[in-house]
């Protein structure tokens, strides 16, 4: 059974989001046709809440909720999946200059997986760093579709993925309820836990999916019908 | 901090304790009129007596009109050459009743750094605690300020 997860979203636990987790689930339940998600992965900025327990909400809405983190590194922002006690002990997520290569290798060694996100974004994306620093090793995937991308960012991400033959994920990067699930990742297996998610990311049997509606061009005022 | 430097001793230091101001019934009514709030528990003494607090109370956001001191902004550590208001979080703990005497006690709650599209930014969070005449904490107002070099 395949599993489609929004791998990148922020709840009110992040300093720049006001979206309650339950509101995300309600929105998904209302928009399942357009955004057929099986669950979400909360990637709060510079933190990991090991005590968070969403089982009641999972049961209520029939959706999977996993916890991860969005870390800041010397190569931009990166999603850290499968965070556990050992990873938290080794890396201080509050540090906004975490050494990226050390994070990728250390997290992998301790049972997690790191995915650089919005690589085409200025200042916080991988592309900018690759322009003047060596490419990172052992990258399991990078985020191809990001719901918060501006013009040009996804084209740069696509070019990077093609050049380095990276695998691609998708996530909404939602900070607002209505943006949840705009982009996601489809895994060919049944993913139910963070450990399974990490195994699938390392295994590579997934594709980035884009549920954003195609915008119709607005006709110019006075244009002929 | 990687990009911004400040004295960690500023965290938690109270820099302001304003003179108490009395919450007047007419002020509550004026505030409600400005907002278009017509719930009688805020505007009608008799209706309020039958409500949960037995007396006229102010709408929750009323505490946001309380004035900080003149030097409030001057106490915010300057970490970059550009600072902007990034909004306020309000945590309400007690009702504001007509006749209450409210004061604000302000301190630097937190300073942290993050990177965004435009580069590194420092966030300074100033907490103003609203206290009433009984020293009860009525609300916490967290003012968020973003600073960056441009």
What features would you describe in this structure?
- The complex is a heterodimer of chains A (225) and B (150).
- Chain A is α/β, with parallel strands linked by helices.
- Chain A has one domain (3-210): TIM Barrel.
- Chain A is built from seven helices and nine strands, in the order βαβαββααβαβαββαβ.
- In chain A, strands 5-4-3-2-1-8-9 form a seven-stranded mixed sheet, sandwiched between helices. Chain A has a two-stranded parallel ribbon with strand order 6-7.
- The longest helix of chain A is centred in the C-terminal third of the chain and has 12 residues, at 153-164.
- The mean pLDDT of chain A is 95.
- With 150 residues, chain B is mainly beta.
- Chain B has a domain at 8-23 and 67-148: Thiol Ester Dehydrase, Chain A.
- Chain B has three helices and six strands.
- Chain B has helices spanning 25-35, 40-43, 45-49; strands spanning 14-17, 21-22, 82-92, 101-116, 119-131, 137-148.
- In chain B, strands 1, 2, 3, 4, 5 and 6 form a six-stranded antiparallel sheet that branches.
- The longest helix of chain B has 11 residues, at 25-35.
- The model of chain B has no long low-confidence stretch (mean pLDDT 94).
In short:
The complex is a heterodimer of chains A (225) and B (150). With 225 residues, chain A is α/β, with parallel strands linked by helices.
N- to C-terminal separation of chain A? 47 Å
Number of helical segments with 4 or more residues of chain A: 7
CATH T-level topology of chain A: TIM Barrel
Interface with most residues: A-B, 13 and 11 residues
Q: What is the name of the CATH class of the domain at 8-23 and 67-148 in chain B? A: Alpha Beta
The span between the termini of chain B is: 18 Å
- CATH-assigned homologous superfamily of chain A: Metal-dependent hydrolases
Q: What is the residue-averaged pLDDT of chain B?
A: 94
CATH homologous group name of the domain at 8-23 and 67-148 in chain B: Hotdog Thioesterase
H/I helix tally of chain B: 3
Structural class of chain B: mainly beta
**Could you spell the SSE succession of chain A in H and E letters?**
EHEHEEHHEHEHEEHE
CATH structural fold name of the domain at 8-23 and 67-148 in chain B: Thiol Ester Dehydrase, Chain A
Structural class of chain A: alpha/beta
Percentage beta strand of chain A: 15-25%
Element-by-element helix/strand order of chain B: EEHHHEEEE
Return the CATH architecture of chain A. Answer: Alpha-Beta Barrel
What is the general shape of chain A?
A: globular
CATH architecture of the domain at 8-23 and 67-148 in chain B: Roll
- What is the residue-mean pLDDT of chain A, rounded to a whole number? 95
Per DSSP E runs of 2 or more residues, the count of β-strands of chain B stands at 6
């Amino acid at each position: 059974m395949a599993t489609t997860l929004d791998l990148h979203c922020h709840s009110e636990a992040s300093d720049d989001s006001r979206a309650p987790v339950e509101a995300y689930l309600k929105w998904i339940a209302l928009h399942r046709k357009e955004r057929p998600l099986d669950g979400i992965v909360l990637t709060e900025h510079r933190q990991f809440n090991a005590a968070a327990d969403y089982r009641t909400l999972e049961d209520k809405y029939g959706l999977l909720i996993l916890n991860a983190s969005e870390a800041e590194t010397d190569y931009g922002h990166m999603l850290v999946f499968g965070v556990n006690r050992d990873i938290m002990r080794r890396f201080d997520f509050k540090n906004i200059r975490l050494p990226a290569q050390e994070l990728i290798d250390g997290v992998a060694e301790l049972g997690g997986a790191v995915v650089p996100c919005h690589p085409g974004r200025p200042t916080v994306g991988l592309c900018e760093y690759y322009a003047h620093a060596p490419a990172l090793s052992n990258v399991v995937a990078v985020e191809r579709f990001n719901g918060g991308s501006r013009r040009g960012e996804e084209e740069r991400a696509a070019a990077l993925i093609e050049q380095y033959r990276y695998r691609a994920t998708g996530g909404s990067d939602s900070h607002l309820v209505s943006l949840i699930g705009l982009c996601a990742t489809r895994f060919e297996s049944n993913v139910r836990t963070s450990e399974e998610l990490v195994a699938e990311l390392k295994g590579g049997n997934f594709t980035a999916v884009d549920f954003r509606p195609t915008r119709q061009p607005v006709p110019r005022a006075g244009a002929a019908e | 901090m990687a990009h911004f430097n400040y004295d960690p001793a500023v965290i938690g230091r109270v820099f302001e304790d304003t003179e108490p101001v009395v919450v007047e019934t007419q002020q509550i009514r004026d505030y409600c009129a400005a907002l278009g709030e017509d719930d009688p528990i805020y505007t009608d003494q008799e209706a309020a007596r039958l409500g949960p607090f037995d007396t006229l109370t102010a709408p929750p956001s009323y505490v946001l009109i309380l004035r900080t001191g003149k030097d409030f902004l001057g106490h915010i550590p300057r970490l970059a050459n550009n600072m902007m208001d990034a909004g306020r979080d309000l945590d309400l703990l007690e009702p504001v009743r007509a006749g209450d005497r409210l004061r604000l006690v302000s301190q630097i709650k937190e300073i942290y750094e993050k990177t965004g599209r435009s580069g590194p930014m420092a966030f300074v969070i100033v907490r103003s605690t609203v206290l009433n005449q009984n020293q009860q904490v009525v609300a916490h107002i967290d003012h968020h300020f973003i600073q960056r070099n441009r």
